[in-house]
Amino acid sequence: WYQRRVHGKQWYQRRVHGKQWYQRRVHGKQWYQRRVHGIPIDLCDFDFEILEDEPFQPPEDGVYVRGLFLEGAKWDPERKVLSEAAPKELFSPCPLIWLKPAKVVDFEEVPHYNCPVYKISSRFGMLSTTGHSTNYVMAIRLPSDKPQDHWILRGVALLTQLDD
After folding, report:
1. Do 118 and 69 touch, CB atoms closer than 8 A?
2. Which of 5, 3, 16, 12 shows the shortest CA–CA distance to 158?
3. Is 28 strand, coil or helix?
4. pLDDT tens for residues 80-122?
5. Opening angle at CA 163, ends 162 and 164, nearest 5
6. How far apart are the C-alpha atoms of 10 and 70, rounded to whole Å?
């Protein structure tokens, strides 16, 4: 798998669903990218880009994530920012997200919301022996023209699966 770069294609070919341990995949991909680019562990993290079109090839670096759902908000493809959810609409599909490993100092500073990603909508989990919550996956920086507090008060989150 190393020579064929299968590791880099895993999430590109699969739809996200709630039955996998995402922390292992995310951290595994971070370790792989750190080793390839020689970036120290404390200086590397994922930057995020929302993609409008489905790419035909896997990314050179990072992974594509699709199949997430926004709870409490929706993505505005015209303005390319997080926006208010439509009335009586609890969940909306999230577009394809590119997780790009990069040095933290190289991140483009744009107004954003650090959106938590959960496996299920109940948002609680047990603390596992590895120190990770069994439900929380990671935070994804979504571009926004409103302050973080606005989305926090609305309880906006990304989910890997819906309850029904």
Report:
1. no
2. 16
3. helix
4. 999 999 999 999 999 999 888 888 888 888 899 999 998 888 8
5. 95
6. 22
